[in-house]
Amino acid sequence: MGLLSIIRKIKRKEKEIRILMVGLDNSGKTTIVLRINGEDTSVVSPTLGFNIKTLTYQKYTLNIWDVGGQKTIRSYWRNYFEQTDGLVWVVDSSDLRRLDDCKMELDNLLKEERLSGSSLLILANKQDIKGSLTPEEIGKVLNLEAMDRTRHWNIVGCSAYTGEGLLEGFDWLVQDIASRIYVLD
Amino acid sequence: MENEEEAEALSSNPTREALDLDPALQKKRQTMLERLSNRHQTRTDSSLTRRSAESDSASSPSFESTSTFLSRFSNSKSSIESQLAQCRLSDPTQLKPQLDQISSSISDLEKLVAENSYFLPSYEVRSSLKAVSDLRQSLENLSAELLPKKKFSFRNKGPKKDPIAEPKEKEKEKEPEKSGFRVPASPGIWNKKGETLVHNFKGSEVGEFTISDLDSCEVRLMGSVRALFVHRLRNCKVYTGPVTGSVLIEGVEGCVLVMASHQIRIHNAKRCDFYLRVRSRPIIEDSCEVRFAPYCLSYKGIEEELRETTLDEETENWANVDDFLWLRAVQSPNWSVLPENERVGLIDISNSEEVRPLPVLLVSMCAWSKR
């Protein structure tokens, strides 16, 4: 048995995926994490620092790092970049005024070399709110088509409030990461 | 052998005339000529096929002969080298396809080595592969030199390209989009001075609502909205019914805000009083001289609206403020609880005439005198 196959076996046994959730404040990161974990979302305080949730999704263990998005703590995001398999960028689709900020922060993030190998899921959140931009419009504003070709990315509209779209988004993310890191059985 | 025979036959030409009359000999000569022309035909044919077979082998190369391989290899190599040299002189717009073309010929060359490696001496394999990698290296050097962003795009993009090229592109693209989306998409109140603005959302489904760039105005919002954005207000009074989602406040000065919501975030607020009912902890960031008190709004039907949005219960969270710029155990100097004797009483906005005007100036004076 070669070394490579031993390593593959070990990886396959663990099946751990590390996901980093980032985005501007008020985009709904914590609510999304609580929602996919089936927890109560009626009282969610703005995140001062970060939360970690470990949950089992299909046959994988997801470690989700939900990091606060307030301006003063964005500079700490980089402390969480190491070994990130999947990046979830959450956008408040109803916050039209700060889309420029949102694009700028995302562009900065994607320059980060430590994140260059991670799959990127963009969640256009708050689709339930009337007047929100559609995922297509968000994609245009963020100029996603111009992204580096080597990046695996996808944009999905969702609502942490109703739960719509979240499974679709995370399904894609987990499948994409799994096919990259783990040899499919 | 047969050639000699033919030569013999041809050399017998001088005696031919003498033999002309002999029919047997004539017949023999006839067959000989036929044989000759046939032979010639097959010879040219076979040489043609041989030649075409040779050119076929160029596309699927396997000659099983080291010398053929080497001559072929050196041919392609020198042609690639001359192409590389030409690149320096050519038109920059044509450069990209040209370099791509060279890169694919290098790959072809590498493939050629790989396909013939089974019969080549290992020294030849090694030296050929070395030559291929040298070619590739010089191609990379050349493209880095002529198209600098191609190879170093990752690093250069950050410091070099961004500040000049990208923001311009971004703005160009964004401007039409913004004006296309924003105006019709976002209901709200903008750019007013010294006015009283009343909105009643009762019975209508309102998504997000924006209050932006107001000076010395009073805003009364009745009924519930999903999300509220408050941006750049000076000396204003804002009274709102329940907000089902979140409130985002940025850049307010000398204002009084009375709001109920599930989440409230306050950025860049100065000398403001907030009367809040919040399900979660309100936060402030880059703010100073802000004071907090419990919600105190009343209009017809507000109780029911608060109940429907699960904001009927007083959670006392209005006093649990997190200051993102003050991460210590001691009380942040940026905010305080508004003393009871300085709070406004219950504000009833059911009827415009009944609204008690809030002395905004007085509020800010209080804030000043406290310090």
TrEMBL record, chain A:
SMART domains: ARF, RAB, SAR. PROSITE patterns: ARF (PS51417). The keyword Metal-binding applies. The keyword GTP-binding applies. It holds the Pfam family Arf. One of its GO terms (molecular function) is metal ion binding. Mg(2+) binds at residues 30, 47. Keywords: GTP-binding, Lipoprotein, Magnesium, Metal-binding, Myristate, Nucleotide-binding. GTP binds at residues 23-30, 69, 125-128. Gene3D superfamilies: P-loop containing nucleotide triphosphate hydrolases. CDD domains: Arl2 (cd04154). Belongs to the small GTPase superfamily. Arf family. This is ADP-ribosylation factor-like protein 2.
TrEMBL record, chain B:
Residues 159-180 have a biased composition (Basic and acidic residues). It comes from the Eukaryota. Residues 167-326 form the C-CAP/cofactor C-like domain. It is found in: Cytoplasm. InterPro entries: C-CAP_CF_C-like, CAP/MinC_C, CARP_motif, TBCC, TBCC_N, TBCC_N_sf, Tubulin-bd_cofactor_C_dom. Its main location: cytoplasm. Pfam families: TBCC, TBCC_N. Keywords: Acetylation, Chaperone, Cytoplasm. One of its GO terms (cellular component) is cytoplasm. Residues 1-67, 153-185 are annotated as: Disordered. Residues 55-67 have a biased composition (Low complexity). Belongs to the TBCC family. Supercomplex made of cofactors A to E. Cofactors A and D function by capturing and stabilizing tubulin in a quasi-native conformation. Cofactor E binds to the cofactor D-tubulin complex; interaction with cofactor C then causes the release of tubulin polypeptides that are committed to the native state. This is C-CAP/cofactor C-like domain-containing protein. It comes from Rubus argutus.
